[in-house]
Amino acid sequence: MNVVRLEDIQDVIVVLRDRSVIIDCDVAEIYGVETKRINEAVKNNPDKFPSDYVFEVSDQEFGFLRSKFSTTKFAKTRTAPKIFTEKGLYMIATILKSKKAVEATFGIIETFAKIRELSRTVGVVGCEE
Asked: Which of 51, 65, 69, 83 has the CA that lies 20 to 30 A from 75?
């Protein structure tokens, strides 16, 4: 069984619009499904994915993502990817009910908790200086 590691999730988190987010193809990889399945879940459940849960990138943001990552990540992508916030990741977990999805959700929760803890620590250190 492939265990979802904190490091694997941390490696795919990107800061976009001042938020820590994950691109749809990376969400698919974490949850062990095809990207089109992730996007179908969003399309079929629009009421579960408001704009603060999932959004599409602008052309400028897509250009930034293309420059940040290897072009192979977006080689098959004809449209701008969907971007999942932490809330969107939790919501997709309610739709994907596999054992892998449950495991991935635990990893995501732990990773985002760790990020928040680190940012609070950095904020406290920054205030003392």
From this structure: 51
